Amino acid sequence: MALLDDIEPLKRAALAELKSATDLATLEQSKGVWIGPHGRFTALMKQLGTLSKEEKPAAGKAINAAKLELEAALAERRGELELAAALPKEPTDFSAPGRRRALGRLHPLTQVTEDIVRSFRKIGFVVADGPEIEDEYHCFDALNTPADHPARDTQDTFYLASTAPNASPSPGEEGRGEGGRQPQLLRTHTSSVQIRVMEKQPPPIRIIVPGRVYRRDNADATHNPTFQQIEGLYVDKNVTVGDLKGTVEFVFKELLGEETKIRFRPHYFSYTEPSFEIDFSNALVKKLGKDWLEIAGCGMVHPQVFENVGYDPEIWTGWAFGFGIERIAMIRYGINDIRLFYENDVRFLKQL
Ligand code: DAH
């Protein structure tokens, strides 16, 4: 009986093919070849009609059993291949180092500020803070800066429109000074915080004030309408220029290297007397082809400033300084354009 004898070898061949399929597409193709509507087992079924009555039941049963077996094998192989497809292509290497998230870092200006603050903390200074929107009194008058000083010109300073010196006062605001509303501005220096701190607490004082300041400058390689300063103020009895120079020297050596030299040049600031500009010199300055670079302003606190905050200038003495953070950062990192600090291009920031 030829048909019945054909079933077993055909089934074995089909099973072997299904089990060895290496991907889902090949498996589905094999399914079609063997048990699909035009498959070979379907063809066998059709041949049943040619058999005798006696032979039919046994052959039909055998074909059905084989078909069931093939369907089971097909499902099993499909499961295996689907699982394999879902797994990662590469084997997992558990000894490989983990994937690190790129960590951000502090902005170079923050790094420099923190270094300066750290140096001053070592010698007993604390950080103080004040408002960026200031009034004219704290930014200028209290610092002995007269009304006709160019810094107070609306061309040099950002005034808040309705309070600007030449704005017409809104009703009820006529008259300034005592009782009147102070013109409001964006502080042009951190020196205003000297006044705010001294108004609030009695001497002695040892503060530094890092902070943002504003000037009506057009942005170019060395100017920006906003930049950072650090102010220092020291008030006690018998404070001398020697204390000022020693302190500045200590901090600059920490910041820019042990071989850094500083020198004082006479200058004028209305809130200090005498006043100086500080120049420094080291290998970085030499690299720029110069002997000295101007870095800060300073001086002994003017007696009038003490009067303005209610300190007795016969008892108290002090010094103050102020310098720009960007300038120091530019020298330290060899950067020639201040605007790079504000563009926040990570390709630049990553290098520092
Ligand atoms: N305020 C000055 C500026 O913005 C810097 C300065 C000079 C601050 C002398 C001081 C000082 O405290 O004593 O250019």
Q: If you had to describe this structure to a student in words, what would you say it looks like?
A:
The protein is of the alpha+beta class and 352 residues long. The chain folds into two domains: 85 residues; 189 residues, BirA Bifunctional Protein, domain 2 (2-Layer Sandwich), CATH 3.30.930.10. Strands 1-4-5-9-8-7-6 form a seven-stranded mixed sheet, with helices on both faces. A hairpin with a 2-residue loop joins strand 6 and strand 7. The protein is rod-shaped, with a radius of gyration of 43 Å. 28% of the residues are buried. About 2% of the residues have low confidence. The site of 3,4-dihydroxyphenylalanine has 11 residues, from strand 8 and strand 9.
The poorly predicted ranges are 172-179
How is the CATH topology of the largest domain named? BirA Bifunctional Protein, domain 2
| Largest beta-sheet characterization | 7 strands, mixed
* Largest sheet: spatial strand order: 1-4-5-9-8-7-6
Mean pLDDT level: 91
CATH architecture label name of the largest domain: 2-Layer Sandwich
Give the ordered list of helices and strands: HHHHHEEHEHEEHEEHEHEHHH
Question: Which class best fits the helix and strand makeup?
Answer: alpha+beta
Strand content: 15-25%
Rg, nearest Å? 43 Å
Hetero groups: 3,4-dihydroxyphenylalanine
User: Approximately how much helix is present in the residues?
Assistant: 40-55%
Count of domain modules: 2
Number of helices: 13
The number of E-state strands comes to 9
In CATH terms, the superfamily of the largest domain is Bira Bifunctional Protein, Domain 2
The protein's oligomeric status is single chain
Top-tier CATH class of the largest domain: Alpha Beta
